[in-house]
Amino acid sequence: MNFKINNWRVLISIIFSVFIFVNCAGKARKPAPKPIGQISPHFEISLRLADSLWANRTDPDNALDALYAYEYLAQKDSTNLPIWSKLVHAYYFYAEYIQSQNQVRRDSLFGIGYNITREMLKRSKPYQSVMVTAGDPLLALKSLESPYEQILYWGTACLAQWSATKGEIVQRGQRKWIFAALNQIHDLDSTFYFGGY
């Protein structure tokens, strides 16, 4: 088992080193613009590696490596909502199942997952528009469209788990947002809502 873990770590290290080397080596030359929607082969390889680690997330080392890989990919393509959704899901999983005995660490990880979700929601034009005109986050949640259901689901799960260990006042303050988010997820995709995947 250690042999497999070390192989994954070596492979991740090699891939990320190659990316850094390639990025640094070509600084003097300006690359041609990519057509919209085109994914670089390096990004695609990294995504497959991250998904492979995620598929084996029952091993704590793989879960952590997948989280780091999704974090790297999200930073590389800050507009890729599915990657950000996977990252928030990874934070939820790591906090809930791997760090289950460390409440401070769990709270921190759940908080990061929820904050990522909030930042991604701000990138939705309908959400922004409602926030500017009405200033009501609950009303703004109702304006979200697909594909926001996945990141909203996992961000809401992070918020719910974070607030579950807090006092009644904190829980009451978060309850309306959680229920509004769950209702919107259900309206967007009831199959996903009941499956969570």
Description:
- The chain has helices at residues 2-25, 41-55, 60-76, 81-98, 103-121, 125-133, 137-142, 149-164, 168-188, 190-195.
- It has two domains: 1-21 and 41-77, no CATH class; 88-197, no CATH class.
- 77% of the residues lie in helices and 0% in strands.
- Residues 24-38 have low confidence and may be disordered.
- It has 197 residues and is an all-alpha fold.
- Helix 1 packs parallel to helix 3, helix 4 packs parallel to helix 8 and helix 8 packs antiparallel against helix 9 (168-188).
Write a compact overview of the structure shown.
By secondary structure, this protein is mainly alpha-helical.
Protein topology:
Layout: H1 2-25, H2 41-55, H3 60-76, H4 81-98, H5 103-121, H6 125-133, H7 137-142, H8 149-164, H9 168-188, H10 190-195
Major β-sheet profile = none
Provide the number of structural domains.
2
Name the structural class. mainly alpha
Global morphology: globular
Radius of gyration over alpha carbons? 19 Å
The chain-level mean pLDDT equals 84
Overall helicity? over 70%
Q: What is the element string, with H for helices and E for strands?
A: HHHHHHHHHH
- Spans where pLDDT lies below 50 across 5 or more residues: 24-38
List key phrases describing it.
single chain; mainly alpha; 77% helix
